[in-house]
Amino acid sequence: QVQLQESGPGLVKPSETLSLTCTVSGGSISSYYWTWIRQSQGTGLDWIGYIFYTGSADYNPSLKSRVTISIDTSKNQFSLKLSSVTAADTAVYFCARVGQYRTATAHHYFMDVWGKGTTVAVSS
Amino acid sequence: DMQMTQSPSSLSASVGDRVTITCRASQSIRTNLNWYQHQPGQAPKLLIYAASSLQSGVPSRFSGSGSGTDFTLTINSLHPEDFATYYCQQTYSIPGTFGQGTRLEIK
To answer: Which chain B residues are closer than 8 Å to A95 by Cβ?
Structure first.
């Protein structure tokens, strides 16, 4: 059974870079897309971005200038970096696996395995 | 961004009740709609994908329907473990936006 675990500092200073890692256990990171999502008090759940095991990534346009998602297949990990953080970036950060379902006419995506989340506060 | 609006934002019900949560998209998303359940402190759980497909291992009392802009999640005969917050999410366009959530509470 695939499990995901987020790790990283729980406190980041304003203007600094938030760095989190998601470790995948019980299965291979290959052949899947992987994603980061955050939940803040004010805005609910926000999709941050995703990465394919090949390293191809895409991001939420609202965060694109500050976000980098990377992957290390040798360690079965993928990571999130969010630069120039402010208090608005205080949130619970989740990593998740992206599942896919294809029909003759459609291609569906969904987050089928999630980590429990890690709380990151931005404060001096 | 695609706007997803859930209703109600909160709901009180009793064990054994049937409840329905709705999700409306600001424009057509065909059937690119997923439903998740979230208990505090736990990993969110996928319930329904592609609007009406039940995720493996999810009890059959959960069902989803809809297409285009209007979708519903129905829970038949509520169990105690069903009291949680439910979210819809569209994956028709980037970013994959979520509804604001529906908190299901015990009456």
So the answer is: none
